[in-house]
Each structure stands twice: as C-alpha cells, then as structure tokens.
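note to self — DONT lose this again. spent like an hour looking for the file last time. sequence + predicted structure for the chain T wanted, 274 res
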Amino acid sequence: MVTAAISSPRRFQYPSEFTWTLFALILCIVMVHATFVAWIRPQAQAITEIEQARMRADKDYTPQTSFILRIKDYEQEAEIIHFLWAVLIMSYKAVLIRREREYLKRDLIHVPEGIKVLPEDAKDYARQLEALPADEKPRLVVRALQRTLDRFAATRSIRDAAETSTSVCDAEADRLDSGLAMIRYIAWAIPAIGFIGTVRHIGDALLQAHKAVGGDITGVTSDLGIAFNATFVALMLTIVLMFFLHQLQQYQEQFVHDTDQWIEQRLTRHMQVR
C-alpha cells in the first residue's frame, strides 16, 4: 500500500553565527583584495605617475591628494576588510533580532480581555507553547512565556512569575551583549592596524633620512604620507563602526525591553490567585 504524505514547506534556516562569521571574513578578504588588485592599486599607480610628471615639469606644483591614494596601501586594505567584516556580522545580528521581533506580533497565547489566568490554567496555556514547531521554541518570547507559566503554576505567586519573566529577559540581554565581543575586538583592531602602519612607514622614512640630507626628500615624504594615511583611514572607519555598534546595541536592548513588556501586557496582568 502506498501512502501519500503532504509535508509542510521547510522554513529557511539561518546559518549559525560561527558559520556566518567565517563566511563573512572569507568574503570580505576575497572581494576587497580583488578590488584593490584589479582597480584601486592600478588607479593609484596611474595617479602617482601623473602627479610626479607634473612635479618634474613645475617645481612649484603642489601634489593633489585623492581618496584612492589614501587607501591604496596594505594597512588600509586590512582596515577595510575588518570594517566590512564587522558590518556583515552586525547585519546578521540585526536580522536575527528582527526575526525574533516578529514573534511579538503573534498571538502565541490568547487571553481575552477580562479573563483571569489562574495557576490551574497555566498548564493549559503552556500546552499551546509546547505545540509550537521545534524551531520556534528557542525564541525569547516563547522561552519567557514558558518559564513564566511554569513558575506561576508551581509557586502560585504572581510576583514570582513576573520576576521569572524579567530574569529570562535579563539573561538574554547579557547574552546579546556578550555576543558583541567580536565587534568590539574589531573596533579595537582597526585603529591598532593603523598605528602599526604608521610606525612601520615612519621607520621606513627614517631609513631614507640620508637621502633627505642630500636633497632628495621624495622617499621620506612618500613614506610619511602613507604612515599618516593609515591612521587617518583607521580612525574614520572606527568612528563609523562605533556608531553602527551603538545602534545595534540599542536595538537589542529595546527588543529585550519590548519582550518583557509584551509578556506583562499579554499574560502577567491577567494573572490572579484565589
């Protein structure tokens, strides 16, 4: 006998955070390095040759700076890779939070206005949550509701139930904050790379001090320009990155706060003990 089964469509599964972080790093390295090799460095070389020709033709000519010349070196390439890597990680985290917020729009447990939830009813409401698909049970609002109902049924205390909801949300807030450790590391690493580039090229400039004594300061000025550009680009990228980081942190904190308030409005305020 042949039986036909209609399977429900599979939900899109987001990659794990480690998988996405590794994939984002590889993607940034490949894309940025390819862009530098194929376009930025050839353009920078062409601009440099033009500027040098103009300087040879006119001793009073002042070389013009450009964005491409500021970012053409290896330190700046590493800084941009780190910056884009951090942006992709933050985008992934923001998408996950937005996905979690969608559950706040759902009627996970239905408590009509004017109906009181007694400790004896908590198990019935908990069964509604247990019937959810397995991939939905780890969501913050589902976990907080489940723990709140279980606590209310066990202790018959509205205060304990409310504190349980708050403690679950606080634990999630701590977890989300600790998940930003990699972003904070990158925000530290970008200016560190810039300082390394500055120190390295200042050292190269000092090695050519004997040429400057002889009247040829081209090598010294070139290395000093690269040195200061490395720090300049790093600091600019860090300013932008820290802005995005604070926006993400605020987004996460607001989500946790809204979840706690949602549970209070949808469940806790309806609780009653005889």
